[in-house]
Amino acid sequence: MFDHIHHVAIIASDYARSKAFYTGVLGLPVIAEAYRAERDSWKLDLKLGDAQIELFSFPDPPARVSRPEACGLRHLALSVADLDAAVAHLTAHGVACEAVRVDEYTGRRFTFFADPDGLPLELYER
User: Domain ranges in the chain?
Assistant: First the structure.
């Protein structure tokens, strides 16, 4: 019945800054972009494997607790083939990453970083 994630929706406080981060730094391809005048909102659909990230802008969105240990959605994890290369890429773009850790159950390496609004993102090595 439920077989995969279709999309994850993110509301950005600064649409241009977040668009540059997700397309330029993370390199996600744009599927579509539209301005919705009735909502004074941009919507950007980005390809992420078989799923999508929907990036929205809204006037004056309220702040949300985004720490990984806060109640609710914990973080968005991105799968990478080479964690060291991905961390080096982010670092070269001025994005700070936490120290690399090893998942005690799978033996896989991972780290966390944040998008421009502080949304916790994880890199998980395949």
Answer: 1-60, 74-126
